[in-house]
Design goal:
Blueprint: H1 5-15, E1 23-32, H2 38-48, E2 57-63, E3 66-74, H3 78-86, E4 91-103, E5 111-115, H4 131-151, H5 156-164, H6 166-169, H7 177-185, H8 192-199
Parallel strand pairs: 2-5
Antiparallel strand pairs: 1-3, 1-4, 2-3
Length: about 220
């Protein structure tokens, strides 16, 4: 039996490592509660991700004044971790920077965490129009790190060492202490609680009429 076009497309996706299941990717930032250490929060995240197996991958970057984290995985596996993070007593605040749905390709080979002190003096003067670019630069920087971790076939332990030596590998784009502080100063970014209230709310589709056929006749001008 000759192969169909669908067979060819599915074979191409499988050979390229891209599955048919779409994924969700979320980039967050936050601050630790008073008395919380970076290793304790890292351990908490690792335990919270255990129920999902290895389906959720990503990177937690722990800086002196807070943290950035990007996670990606099947759409059904992301919300349970976000809900646990929402109620985590180790955190003072959690903010969502970006959410991408229908993601086809992973950028992170596994979930890992790393501590770093990143002094780059890249505090930027911005107005309302510059905010999206500031956030996008931060989100893309995390993806670039993930791409490097994947290319180098790192383990979680070697990934932590790679991020810790950021000056050698990620000097041009590593999210900095200053960038984290600046983003926390900005107003209008949704907290994780606000994001989840929208993300998990049912879609209310308003139908004007139960009659769908025949379609309305076009208006003739």
């Amino acid at each position: 039996m000759p192969a169909t076009l669908l067979d060819v497309l599915m074979e191409q996706r499988e050979s390229s490592g891209k599955g048919l299941q779409t994924m969700t990717r979320v980039c967050l930032m936050g601050r630790l509660a008073a008395g919380t250490t970076a290793p304790s929060f890292s351990s908490w995240c690792e335990k919270a991700l255990l129920p999902s197996g290895n389906s959720v991958t990503g990177l937690l970057v722990l800086l002196p004044e807070g943290w950035f984290q990007t996670i990606e995985g099947p759409a059904a596996d992301i919300p349970p971790f976000l809900q646990a993070l929402r109620h985590c007593s180790l955190l003072r605040s959690t903010t969502v920077l970006a959410c991408q749905e229908d993601v086809r390709t992973r950028y992170f080979p596994h979930w890992s965490s790393a501590q770093a002190v990143v002094v780059r003096s890249n505090y930027a003067e911005i107005d309302a129009d510059g905010l999206p670019k500031l956030i996008a630069d931060t989100v893309v920087a995390m993806l670039k790190i993930g791409k490097k971790l994947t290319a180098d076939r790192t383990s979680p332990a070697s990934a932590a060492k790679l991020v810790a030596s950021w000056e050698k590998h990620f000097a041009d784009f590593m999210p900095s202490n200053e960038r984290l502080a600046q983003l926390h100063e900005l107003e209008g970014l949704p907290s994780l609680a606000e994001f989840l209230d929208i993300f998990e709310s049912p879609v209310d589709v308003v139908v004007q009429s139960e009659e769908i056929w025949p379609p309305e006749r076009p208006v003739v001008y």
